[in-house]
Amino acid sequence: MSHIFCVANQKGGVGKTTTSVNLAAALHQSGQRTLLVDLDPQGNGTMGSGIDKRKLEHSVYHLLVGLGKLEAVRVVSPSGGYDVLPANRDLAGAEIELVNLERREKRLRETLYKCVADYDFVLIDCPPSLSLLTLNGLCAAHGVIIPMQCEYYALEGLSDLVNSIKKVHANLNHDLKIIGLLRVMFDPRITLQQQVSAQLESHFGDKVFRAVVPRNIRLAEAPSHGMPGVVFDRSSRGAQAYLAFANELIERVKTL
Ligand code: ADP
Ligand code: MG
User: Fold this and answer.
1) Ligand in nearest proximity to the CA of 13
2) DSSP string over 182-206
3) How large a percentage of the chain has pLDDT more than 70?
4) How many CB atoms lie within 10 A of CB 100?
5) How far is 119 from 107, CA to CA, in rounded Å?
6) Cα 192 to Cα 177: distance, rounded to the nearest angstrom
7) Residue 44 in contact with residue 84, Cβ under 8 Å?
8) CA 68, CA 116: separation in Å to the nearest integer?
9) pLDDT digit string, tens, across residues 77-134
């Protein structure tokens, strides 16, 4: 069975794309057939996979508005080895165009139906909003992976996201559940981060992944080389954390 997971958090800069790209690469390295869907017009997941977003003839935009075929959009990440449905600024237009289309929130779901059997994991890198694009991601997915920084306002933002997920679950996609919370950019020397991390564990229990991704410069450097961190510097602490996370996820999905 394939697992379709959104990597979502309505805040920007919290590690969604870094998590999507590194998880995709780590799963691929573990022999899992993996597809990364870039659902953010910024195209960072596309660039970070070593695919030039400026040179795309077809992208996720074309799939969502019904102008392109999957075969014309799907590419292999040259650095990561996994498949990608890439995106660029065109996708910002989809947000507006979709409003007038039928089943506007189910467009991605219908696209993925056509290829889901090719994969063990499909990861959707969502934009930093609770927009129609994110809604398409949530409607297409079986679960949500939430990367978060252990900061003071993190818990507040989390409740907005959890409420949105509940609404989508109730009205649009009964399959949707929270797979887990991933602590990222973690710095154990900061007391506040330790406190928020402990709070997360007491509130969410098993939903908090055991793997913790540290703040690590190698992860931040990798995208400028068009590589996932786990390829760019596999021995770095950040890469090791994402490799451990991938193994944990492979175990966790056996219990779903
Ligand atoms: P989002 O997709 O949620 O906007 P990104 O994954 O793009 O967030 O991360 C935001 C910035 O933080 C990027 O510059 C990225 O390279 C950097 N970053 C992400 N995770 C880490 C980490 N664990 N350590 C250091 N820098 C990180
Ligand atoms: Mg991003």
Assistant:
1) 1
2) EEEEE-TT-HHHHHHHHHHHHHHGG
3) 100
4) 7
5) 19
6) 28
7) no
8) 17
9) 999 999 999 999 999 999 889 988 888 999 999 999 999 999 999 999 999 988 999 9
Ligand 1 pocket mutation pick from 9, 10, 16, 18 by most atoms within 8 angstroms of CB = 18
Whether the CA torsion 150, 155, 157, 161 is positive or negative: it is positive
Residues with CB under 6 A from ligand 1: 12-18, 44, 128, 184-185, 213, 215-216, 219-220, 223, 238
Q: How far is the CA of 19 from the centre of ligand 1 (A)?
A: 8
The tokens for 113 are 């139906």
DSSP state, 49?
A: T
Tokens of 244: 């451990």
110 alpha carbon – ligand 1 mean position (Å): 30
pLDDT per position as a tens digit, 6-22: 999 999 999 999 999 99
